[in-house]
Amino acid sequence: MPSTALARPLAAAGIAAVLLGMLAVAALHVLPPTAEISPVRRTISEYALHETAWVFNLGVLVLALGSLAVSAALAYAGQVRIASVAGLGLLLWSLGLAAVVYFPKHNWAVGPSLDGHLHRVASLVAFLSLPVGALLLVFTRRRDARRRADVWLTALPALAALAMFGVIIGAFLLQPYTGVAWWRAIPLGAVERGLAVFEVLTVLALGRWAWRAATDDRKGTFLTDVR
User: Fold this and answer.
1) DSSP 141-177
2) Which pTM does this prediction carry?
3) For residues 38 and 70, what is the distance between their CA atoms, to the nearest angstrom?
4) Is 202 within 8 Å of 128 (Cβ atoms)?
5) CA distances from 88 to 43, 94, 156 (A)
6) pLDDT tens for residues 43-75?
């Protein structure tokens, strides 16, 4: 069994960082000059094209670090192996977020760019890998009675995230038949923000999972020592 000594502080730090990162990005929705950006039609990465881009970049990086701490907490709590497919999915989420910052959103009105394409790929990897990794973890722990609440609290936002992602994929696949550009066929900004919310809720549920698993392990160790 792996040591759980670091699981609880890592889970707490991860949850706090995720909330802080989310708050930073949320503030850009209501503070000038980015308050004028349409949350319905414009993607979240649009905030990286303004003078307050540092707030967006910092918020996303803090979110990535917090998510990484949650993944480490799950590993220390013995709930996931980082070398597993589920563990890889959680890591790719953090790496994808970092890549989103490193390769900023491109203004496609001036023509294509390599950074713009890499930004899209990084977003795709991040948004898809987290719910897939979380659901794989849920599947491996579905018979553990102690983790029943954690399984459901993680599965529901992960499934909702995949559903929101499916809306984007559906618009893309229907583009040849509708003749409407996929980013215009749906309220892309609103869909992406809904997707982001469910992704963050998934990370928070995983952080809770790691905390509770480590707490249960400590209680079990204490009872064994008492006996």
Assistant:
1) TTT-GGGHHHHHHHHHHHHHHHHHHHHHHHHHHHHHH
2) 0.92
3) 32
4) no
5) 26, 10, 20
6) 999 999 899 999 999 999 999 999 999 999 999
